[in-house]
Amino acid sequence: MRTKAGYSWLEETYQLPIIDLWRQCYIDTAVRGRKEQDLGTHQIQLFESRYQPDETLVGHLQFALRYEGVNLQLLKLLFELGDGSQQLCEWISESPTSAYARRACFLYEWLTGSRLPLEDPVPSKMRYVDLLDTQMQFATGAVKKDTRYRVNDNLPGTPDFCPLVRKTKFLREMVGKDLRQRTRETLGKYDPDLLRRAAAFLYLKETQSSFEVEREKPSANRTQRFADLLRQADTGQPLTEQRLVELQNAVVDPRFHEFSWRHQQNWIGGDLGYRQQVDFVPARPEDLPTLMQGLLDTAAKAREVIDSESARGGSEAGEPLFDPVVYAAIIAFGFVFIHPFIDGNGRIHRYLIHEVLTNAGFTPRGIVLPVSAVILTNLEEYVSVLESYSRPVRQRTEYSPDVPDVPATGNDAVYFRYFDATEQAEFLYKALERTVDEDLQQEIDFLLGFDNACRALNQLLDWPNHSLELFVRVVHQNEGKLSNNKKQSHFSWMTETEIGEAEAVVRQAFSGTD
Description:
By secondary structure, the chain is α/β, with parallel strands linked by helices. It has 20 helices and 9 strands. The protein folds into 3 domains: 1-78, no CATH class; 182-435, Fic-like fold (Orthogonal Bundle), CATH 1.10.3290; 461-510. The longest helix is centred in the last third of the chain and has 39 residues, at 422-460.
């Protein structure tokens, strides 16, 4: 016999419209000990009968906090029903030393903004307990101590915006690989002058790739503006509404400039001719002020942690106070899910990845990692990661673009405020690993080979304006040979002997870099 436990029991018993239940727990009389099944989209965890909690809100809440971690979305929906406050008061009055009762009561007040009718609920001599179990979920090391419940508030965000990320096996492995140090080791192999040239090239490539993800071909001016923005990502400026508006104005056509958060419902989808296909309906306009302020406050919280880490001498001084890739995923993907502007959200979302990483010292100053290029080559997986969030929200949402004056329903703020960002963090780590281990080195090696080829060819022949660099590019792209079309259209002035010698020079120049 199998019965639900923990968050699954709470969801079913209180009919909570949850979309973020990544693990389902059951008490199973046929199981000895504990057993876990990974079904891809979610996990099933089975417990033998001795784990059976009391059939009460408190019993299953304690079970959930102990074995499943913190699910802010479900807890917010649960506590808003108003049924749990009395039970929480009785729980902590009877067990003031219980770590789970203290965490539950803290979360009730944190999520609802309402104070439980309790005076001095926990003895002042009690040891503080972490709110998030750092063996299960990523937390900030820059904790705030709550003296009322003797809890270390190590949540990465604020009550208005706080996605969480689980410590999966993959993410543990990625953290252990220390991509920040590997980036420095890769760059440390090259001459500083070459790196300066590479930086200019990488900024341009990241700009072009970011627009291509949106299937756009920007003008030269828009390309330059976005590249300039990437160069300013490490200036340490705080993220504000005004700054995001300036970013939006910089990445879209002037006709579509916005001056604050949008005031109308937007949607993502396509026009099928006979009807509109709605794939996703972002947050409602009336929810944007608090959602975006929460996101900005979370970004500021990340900046405080960064500054604190810098003050203590960086990660070399001990364990890092936070994981910069996790924060980048929380902020950047949270932004694109909320979609606070009508246009330009995707490009700003990818810009925010760089801002968090550069200000966290993950990326050295003056260098941008070509993450969008990796996204472009893995577009199907990127879309899948976006849809893993958008699809369940869409299934709960009712909205018709044909009657835009009728407000959307179902796309409640709680889904944008508290979501599980684990899949997004895993994707970003995968993209960064490939960027660091493959793309970054390939781009720099290409420039090194390009410089070597140009120097050698200059000694071989006198070249007309611009023809030398063109020759190197087209020969390298054609696997060391000049095509007949290019020979006739651009290099008819060269003899066959000169072409053969020049091709050999190009092949030799790139032989140590390919």
